[in-house]
Amino acid sequence: MADNELNPVIGIDLGTTFSAIARWHETRREPRHYQHSRSGDTLQSVVYCDPNTSEILVGKLAYGKGLVDPENVIIGVKRHMDDAEQMISLGGSDFSPIDLSARILRELYQDVAKQFGDGTRFKSRGTVVTVPYYFKAHQCEHTRKAADIADINCVGIIQEPIAASLAYAWQLVQDRPDEEIQENILVFDLGGGTFDLTLFRLQQTPDKLVFEVLATGGDDRLGGMDFDESLYKLILNKSDINLTGLSEIEERKARRKVMEQAIEAKITLSSAHDTYVTVPDVIPGKHIDIQITRKEFEESIQTYIKKIDGIIQKLWAISNLRPSDVNRVILVGGSSRIPCMRSLVCELIGEDRVFGNINPSLCVAEGAAMYAAYLDDKEIFGREIVVKTRTCHALGLETTGGRFYELIGANQPTPWAQRQLFTNDSNDMVSFDINIYQGSASLVKDNTLIGTVNINDLPLRKAEELEIWVTFKVDTEQNLSVIAEVDGNRWASSFRYA
User: Fold this and answer.
1) Which superfamily, per CATH, for 224-300?
2) What order of strands is seen across the sheet that includes strand 328-332?
3) Domain with CATH 3.30.420.40 in the chain
4) Percentage of the chain surpassing pLDDT 70?
5) 202-231 per-position pLDDT tens digit
6) pTM
7) Which listed residue, of 36, 204, 373, 376, carries a Cα 20 to 30 Å from 94's Cα?
């Protein structure tokens, strides 16, 4: 299809603190991010609801309103995507995390649409939205629902490290189009709320780009928001200011004032060795006017640095590779700009292997736009794109006593199948449910329920006389098929497990 600015394919990086949107520019054969009228390259993932008018604001304006009215603003809604039933109260109304994410997606999309007249002429013919690799099945599904609510033509979900690697791989194709290349690539993705670590093998041949996932690790509760909190506490401690004893509203307003300066200081300390933090009247009659050094900031986040280092070390054990086996490191996410994070990677892998030719805040959206282009036209790159995934979390079922029985382990290459024999634990069972879980804890209550297979009309047997065969199959499209066979009868269900 010819390039069309009004009907492009686009990619969206739905981030915890900042989000971005990009299109595939067909005539130039490159991904291009969109500028936002108020925000520049990225949009703050912030939603505010006015308690008087019920008006919803998203982005920079929402963040500004939240500084003076913190009880009606939400930052970091992506961290709530594991619980769609949780209600978040803003401006006297209740919103689910899916609804709030949809607001951010709609703002991204409409901000671009309004750049083409009144916004009604612009319509993407296909959009890909990204999620962390470490997201569980229900979090991915909640993201897709948010895209549907935002009335975006979502044609696919892709993991953020795969999108970032695609942006890198396209540069290889452009720079060395005729070479056959094989590289081990580590994607270090440290954003505002999540940490993803993904080790790939990239193979480029004249007719294929193959991304084979070798190992994954991460934490969906670790990111720049945690560093902001550490710096916030450091500022209060160094200023000898205590916010306890204030009313809830006063405390929130004071916290927002200090947090805004903590975030600014964190950004400044990525390029400077010290900075001044000034907050007049943080509480009546008390001001903050202190100097913070980069060393003090780095000491305040040592717990998280050690945690990140531990996740990296675990990755080598999972993959059976060494740091010297990595050809290239791609830094992704705004928090990867923090000097001590880059130093951590450089010390482990080597500074000469850290790739800096892509923007860590934009490459995920641009890679998603490239994948949207590929889904729209499989011939567009002149190469087939093949993604060989691995299970990020173990898959299994619930057994007696609420225990988790693992059938397929974490980091298993896909496609994969496993068959296991079970039996009945009581006499004359006529039906039972197979509850499917994702996780690694020994008890199912600590894992994530994916779905249930209902088994009924069973032949009457005494305890332990039934042969119940259960087969799990996962494919490269991140779908799980569960087949149960009892006495010649067969039940089958499919679930998305990503």
Assistant:
1) ATPase, substrate binding domain, subdomain 4 (3.90.640.10)
2) 354-355, 328-332, 181-190, 195-205, 208-219, 384-388
3) 9-160
4) 97
5) 998 888 888 888 988 888 789 999 999 999
6) 0.83
7) 36
